[in-house]
Amino acid sequence: MSDQTERPRVLVVDDERNIRDLVGVALRFHGFEVVSASRGYEALEIARSGSPDLLVLDVMLPDLDGFELCRRLRAQGDDVPVIFLTARDAPADTVHGLTLGGDDYVTKPFLVEALVARARAVLRRSGTRGGAGESPAPDDQAVLAVADLELDEVRWEVRRAGNPVELSPTEFRLLAFLMRHPGQVLTKAQLLENVWGFGTQSQVVETYISYLRRKLDPHGPPLIHTQRGVGYALRPAPDL
């Protein structure tokens, strides 16, 4: 296999040519393959047909904004990692972007080296080729189990009481981290650092915990418990 096929392919979407050029040069220098688009619908077509490994996506585009583009990709089952790169820096925008299915949120102005590092981190967390080339540690378990909940990290499958549970990539990573620390109260800061790889608003954690509860609780007693003012723990409900 050639080096070219090993390089992760990044789609950079921004209506400002200087931003596209700046990001493209930096990513190519660090070993990424780069394609670009200046409009939302153009990017949507490339994403659907070109199978990029990562999107670096502006929010304020002239036709289809980045939030709506991400929403459409997720609605059609496309889990390509997305880094929002935008001048919209309000906390509500950050939360909105991440809850839509974004993997990171970078505000302008930005440091290109920091963006490259975040691109690598997102690819590593998503398991996409070219992320970091890291293999799981030898003592990592492929299948995690707590009570009647099972998570297969190789097949990316989750079952509760034998019932399949469909999770988004972020939901899967959050649940996996909770299951690797059964019974331990994990702070929101710990979850942000280990699941998202960066600090952001705690509302994102609360939102994704609620998503998990809605999907897991219909199949049995609640497993994710809130420690008020601290964080969350995954543990079986006590026997009555």
From TrEMBL:
<dbReference type="Pfam" id="PF00486">
    <property type="entry name" value="Trans_reg_C"/>
</dbReference>
<keyword id="KW-0238">DNA-binding</keyword>
<dbReference type="Pfam" id="PF00072">
    <property type="entry name" value="Response_reg"/>
</dbReference>
<protein>
    <submittedName>
        <fullName>Response regulator transcription factor</fullName>
    </submittedName>
</protein>
<dbReference type="InterPro" id="IPR039420">
    <property type="entry name" value="WalR-like"/>
</dbReference>
<feature type="domain" description="OmpR/PhoB-type">
    <location>
        <begin position="141"/>
        <end position="236"/>
    </location>
</feature>
<dbReference type="InterPro" id="IPR016032">
    <property type="entry name" value="Sig_transdc_resp-reg_C-effctor"/>
</dbReference>
<feature type="DNA-binding region" description="OmpR/PhoB-type">
    <location>
        <begin position="141"/>
        <end position="236"/>
    </location>
</feature>
<keyword id="KW-0597">Phosphoprotein</keyword>
<dbReference type="InterPro" id="IPR001867">
    <property type="entry name" value="OmpR/PhoB-type_DNA-bd"/>
</dbReference>
<dbReference type="InterPro" id="IPR011006">
    <property type="entry name" value="CheY-like_superfamily"/>
</dbReference>
<feature type="domain" description="Response regulatory">
    <location>
        <begin position="9"/>
        <end position="123"/>
    </location>
</feature>
<dbReference type="InterPro" id="IPR036388">
    <property type="entry name" value="WH-like_DNA-bd_sf"/>
</dbReference>
<feature type="modified residue" description="4-aspartylphosphate">
    <location>
        <position position="58"/>
    </location>
</feature>
<dbReference type="InterPro" id="IPR001789">
    <property type="entry name" value="Sig_transdc_resp-reg_receiver"/>
</dbReference>
